[in-house]
């Protein structure tokens, strides 16, 4: 019998409560989701199910992937509490090594996990017409104590946008927002579609924009 994997730093964070058990899903994802096709979704580096539980509640069949067993346990508990556990499967795996299936998902979401080196694999895992949503910490000129202590895991200006050019970009922004206790957060967000038709279909969102 193989030995179980040792606890990760994230296991300890999740079990100690130093990371939110019930984080809110991305506001941009929430606004766009109604106009994105239903089907199967993957929430990569799900943590405690930030986007995964929301997508299951929205009717998607969701694969929630993370390297933390504790995060996945909490994600399953949250899905059970909302009575959507029949639409959510957890996958214990390292996102840097996971062998993504080809043309499997209608929607893939990634929140605050730096994964530029897997972009080609994520794009290939989308069905034609499928969507990729990515948000992550951004290198802002303003003080942003929230997130990584160094720029190694922060997106440079337009770096996330350039990474998405193999897909059809539907939305992109770079913003800095104030948060409680003066912990500002600088974030880059991308929504892109695996589509050979540059004209659309475009999901609707009031005030949505694409930057050059």
Protein described:
This protein has 212 residues and is α/β, with parallel strands linked by helices. The chain has one domain: Vaccinia Virus protein VP39 (Rossmann fold, 3-Layer(aba) Sandwich), CATH 3.40.50.150. The chain contains six helices and seven strands; from the N terminus they run H-H-E-H-E-H-E-E-H-E-H-E-E. It has a seven-stranded mixed beta sheet with strand order 3-2-1-4-5-7-6. Helix 1 packs parallel to helix 4. The chain is globular and about 40 Å long. It starts with 8 loop residues before the first helix and ends in a 19-residue tail after the last strand. Mean pLDDT is 82; it is low at 205-212.
Please tell me the CATH architecture by its name. 3-Layer(aba) Sandwich
CATH fold-level label: Rossmann fold
Strand content: 25-35%
The arrangement of helices and strands along the chain is HHEHEHEEHEHEE
Outline, from the CA principal axes?
Answer: globular
Oligomer: single chain
Number of strands: 7
InterPro entries: Methyltransf_25 (IPR041698), SAM-dependent_MTases_sf (IPR029063)
Protein name: SAM-dependent methyltransferase
Pfam families: Methyltransf_25
Keywords: Methyltransferase, S-adenosyl-L-methionine, Transferase
């Amino acid at each position: 019998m193989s030995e179980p994997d040792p606890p990760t730093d994230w296991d300890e964070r999740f079990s100690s409560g130093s990371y939110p058990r019930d984080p809110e899903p991305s506001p941009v994802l929430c606004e766009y989701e109604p106009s994105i096709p239903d089907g199967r979704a993957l929430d990569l580096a799900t943590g405690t199910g930030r986007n995964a539980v929301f997508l299951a509640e929205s009717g998607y069949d969701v694969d929630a992937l993370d390297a933390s067993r504790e995060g996945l346990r909490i994600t399953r508990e949250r899905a059970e509490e909302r009575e959507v556990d029949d639409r959510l499967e957890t996958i214990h795996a390292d996102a840097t090594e996971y062998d993504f299936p080809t043309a499997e998902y209608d929607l893939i979401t990634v929140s605050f996990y730096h994964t530029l080196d897997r972009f080609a694999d994520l794009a290939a895992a989308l069905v034609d017409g499928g969507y990729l949503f990515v948000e992550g910490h951004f290198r802002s000129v303003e003080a942003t104590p929230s997130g990584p202590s160094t720029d190694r895991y922060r997106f440079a200006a337009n770096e996330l946008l350039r990474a998405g050019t193999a897909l059809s970009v539907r939305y992109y922004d770079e913003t800095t927002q104030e948060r409680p206790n003066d912990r500002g957060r600088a974030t880059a967000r991308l929504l892109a579609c695996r589509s050979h038709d540059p004209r659309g279909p475009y999901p609707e969102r009031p005030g949505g924009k694409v930057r050059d």
